[in-house]
Amino acid sequence: KYTVGLGHRRLIVPSGTAIIATIVESVVGMDLDGVSMCELSWDLQGASPVLQTTDVGTTPESADHEEKKSVEILLKALRQGRLNLNVSQVGGVHITSAQTTRSLKTGLFDWKFFNAIVSPDAEALNKVAELLDHRPTVGKILEVVRVLNEEMYKIADYAVKSMWRAKDILNAEGVSDPKHVIPGEKMSRLVSLLLSNDLSQFDSSLKIVQRVTSGEGLDVQAIKDLLRHNLDSYEEHAPEIDRVVRWAALMLNPIEPPANYVETNVKPLSEVEAYSRLFRNILPARSIYAGVGRDKQVPLSVKFSSGVSRVAPYLSLKQIKFLLEERKETDWQVKDLRRIKYISSIKKKVHDISESYGGLSFLPQSFLVSVFLGEATRTSLKARTGNGRRGSMLSPAGRVASKNDFHAAFPEASFASHSADDDHEEEYELGDSLLGPSDVAILLQAGLTSPLKGSTVVQLNQRMLLDLIASQPRSFAVAVLAEIGTPGGHGSARVLAGALMALLETNQESFADKHKLDMCVLLESWLGLAIPRRDHYMAGGRWARQSYYDAIFRVANNILEDARSYMALKGHVQRTREHVETDPVPESALLASGSPSQPLGDAAAKANELITE
Predict the structure, then answer these.
(1) pLDDT digit string (tens) for 430-472?
(2) Residue 83 near residue 39, CB atoms below 8 Å
(3) What CA–CA distance (Å, rounded) separates 13 from 47?
(4) CA angle (29 as vertex; 24, 33 as ends), nearest 5
(5) Is residue 83 classed as helix, strand or coil in its secondary structure?
(6) Which H/E stretch holds residue 433?
């Protein structure tokens, strides 16, 4: 048998246990096309792993038998089985079939059960509901919780029993959908049954419900009195209940309606003179489309080909595809074509990842990302520093570990501000990375949400991206953070603040102390802003009475404000406007001529007849 110990806890795996992982087929390369098919089988010989705990300060090995608490953690149906699963090209895990016993191939613990663990989608929620209704499964979970923590067990046991009781009441009342609790009388009946098992609280509940539905808000005092009268544990948890009730009141209380939205003729940022003057040497989207559509029998000029290649990382994937499809390969300069095609392949991979990352269902993703990320960042750094620079030909891990001093490694990198308010600024400086700001932002977020943040691979991926950002102009770093803070194209300081907090706590355990980064100093060098340190806002810190989140939120707002020039650049290279708001609304030529066609005239006459009748 095999044991794993952690303090006063120990897990005992039974002897004879066999766990076999087989790679049936796998495709790993720069293209990342295809899937990897794997098979995982296990057989515990009918036994279950045993969890043992003792009092804190002792170990299960040294404790007497009477001092130990133990429980088998697996039901019989889960002690032998096989999983057949696929790993997609972006590292997503999907289980296609599973066998949990030699004789039982379907049932509660089928492949949907394991999918619900790794991929909590809409179908998985139905499976979870089915599992919560299975008393033996929930009972086994409660047994394990009780061995781990008695207080947690009491809370979980109360929650589970309350859930089962509520489900029985809803079934008895014929409620299977939210619409079934309407109207207010039905809702009040359910509230009374849930609180007191009878209809004694119907009148009190109805007054509260009618007050909310009439738009007068939630009566906080009335609902607290109702709960105090029916919950035995009210006094014990009064502060928590008070917070929940006030939170509900905040949601249900009436609010002032927003003012009417007045449309005005607002220019896009890219057309505002304060920003457009920064892009005078950068090809706009209109010129790009006109250039590839003109004189297709003649190759593109060297200047135009080079200009498109220069802005390619800042273009969208659809734009890159259009450019490659619109003109023959022989129309481009060889060097520019190679760069654009490479950028296209990177953007395609990043686009696939952007729709699928984070959580257990994408556990292997970081390993697949490292396949092309190392090559892309190495090529970008070589292009900027030159082949003769120190460390440019090292392996990704060696190169990453050696870049602890960014300013010494890249002295030519510009960290000047690119705000439209700076009078001395005359031109927006584009980065020369093969990865654009949006690509780097997506890959950074994939690493920040990875379940394997302590993995060396994830840490190396994050460090490679940080090295790449630091090698570019300051505007590139601001653009990356702006992309994180603009989900769906709309600026959100809240989203960016959450990402900044995760970025500042980047795991660096795989690096030696001399190669670890001070993330606050790094971000300050990029942004020119003071970055709050979490330690200063904890007990004993200089700002302990203030909110760390509020401080980060202010930084996020400043970053989004500083990123207006980048947003203007995106509009400059990605969008064209054929019309403006002041143009007259186009009319149908038929209606403008004043002579409708015969079918239209017949239809109008028929309509008039029907109205007359």
Answers:
(1) 988 899 999 999 999 988 888 888 888 888 889 889 988 988 8
(2) yes
(3) 9
(4) 70
(5) strand
(6) none
Question: Minimal CA–CA distance to 412: which of 495, 472, 356, 452?
Answer: 472
Count the Cβ atoms, other than its own, within 10 Å of residue 176: 9
The mean per-residue pLDDT over the stretch 158-178 comes to 85
Tokens read off for 358: 């984070």
* SS3 category, 5: strand
User: Would you say 442 and 487 are in contact if contact means Cβ atoms under 8 Å apart?
Assistant: no
Asked whether 123 and 111 are in contact (CB, 8 A), the reply is no
Q: Which two tokens stand for residue 383?
A: 């292009």
Q: Is the pLDDT of residue 289 over 80?
A: yes
Straight-line distance from the first to the last Cα atom of the chain, in angstroms, rounded to the nearest whole number: 90
Q: How far apart are CA 261 and CA 152, in angstroms?
A: 50
Token pair belonging to 573: 């290279």
Do residues 497 and 549 make contact, with C-beta atoms less than 8 angstroms apart? Answer: yes
Predicted pLDDT of residue 104: 44
Residue 392, both tokens: 């440019």
Helix axes 474-484, 519-527, angle to 10 degrees: 110
Distances in Å between the alpha carbon of 189 and those of 194, 197, 324, 603? 9, 10, 65, 54
CA distance 299 to 308: 14
Q: Are 153 and 145 in contact (CB under 8 A)?
A: yes
Helix (H) or strand (E) holding 205: helix 202-213
Tens of pLDDT, residue by residue over 387-415, are: 444 444 433 333 333 444 444 444 444 33
Contact 369, 102 (CB under 8 A): no
Is the Cα torsion angle 601, 603, 605, 607 positive or negative in sign? negative
Distance in angstroms (rounded) separating the CA atoms of residues 445 and 443: 5
Q: Comparing C-alpha atoms, which of 568, 570, 569, 576 is closest to residue 289?
A: 576
76 vs 80: CA distance, rounded Å: 8
Cα separation, 438 vs 596, in Å, equals 50
551 contact partners, CB below 8 Å, separation of at least 6: 532, 537, 543
183 prior amide bond cis, ω within 30: yes
